[in-house]
Design a protein that fits this description.
Blueprint: H1 12-26, E1 32-34, E2 40-42
Antiparallel strand pairs: 1-2
């Protein structure tokens, strides 16, 4: 008898994890792998200091600090509300 659990098409999540395993084996220095489906997956072969998720907003270096532009709050006469 065959194993029915392994006899199915891969889900998108399974495909992303498999991609990360395949690419991660060749790039063991990267904590995160960006898949072709624009998802970030942890590299199972990475062994180093913990790295935050690449899109984690609270992890911004001083060089990456966004520029905030102040827009004056002046009422527009064309819009009464």
């Amino acid at each position: 008898m065959f194993n029915q659990e392994e006899d199915h098409l891969a889900t998108p999540a399974e495909a992303c994890r498999e991609y990360a395993r395949n690419v991660g084996e060749q790039h063991r220095d990267r904590a995160w792998i960006l898949t072709d489906w624009d998802t970030w997956e942890r590299n199972p072969y990475y062994h180093g200091p913990a790295q935050p998720h690449p899109e984690f907003e609270d992890y911004i270096t001083p060089e990456q600090t966004p520029v905030v532009v102040e827009v004056p709050n002046t009422p527009d006469e064309d819009i009464p509300f």
